[in-house]
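Slides due. Your pick:
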Amino acid sequence: MTATATAFAFRALDPLRDAELLHRWVTHPKAAYWMMQDAQPEDVERAYREIAADEHHHALLGLGEDGRPVFLMEYYDPVHRELAGLYEPEPGDVGMHFLTPATDTPVHGFTKAVITAVVARLFEDPATRRIVVEPDVRNTAVHTLNEAVGFVPVREIQKPEKRALLSFCTRERFERAVAAV
């Protein structure tokens, strides 16, 4: 069985309702790059309440065909969050993070379908001209996924919490990458 990007819907994350689920996801050892390994449930709830209240940062859950949450997506304005002062932003830049939870029954192609759906969702907004990501430089698995959907690594940057690989994806590069599959 394989996953496809069209198999997902999105809903706004509800910090109170979804905190327990998110806590399981973000504290799992496979989510080490999410940097919440030692978080308590109330820490996760607090973090996502802050995001919900932030006009420059948003969190969505990706839903599977059965309507259950199967991944987390965050997007943000890099002029105001995450990358403020660390690169020269352009009009239409949108920052993005995504997390697929650890599973005992992996589905071939799931994570690639997720990142494809996340990038497609962001490009649904005509104002989005470029998506910006800043994963940990050691996270080679996500670098490979990013490149598969059209991201181009630009340079390493030092964030307070990590050394990151700044990468960009334009709508055109995404469309070419998806069409090439």
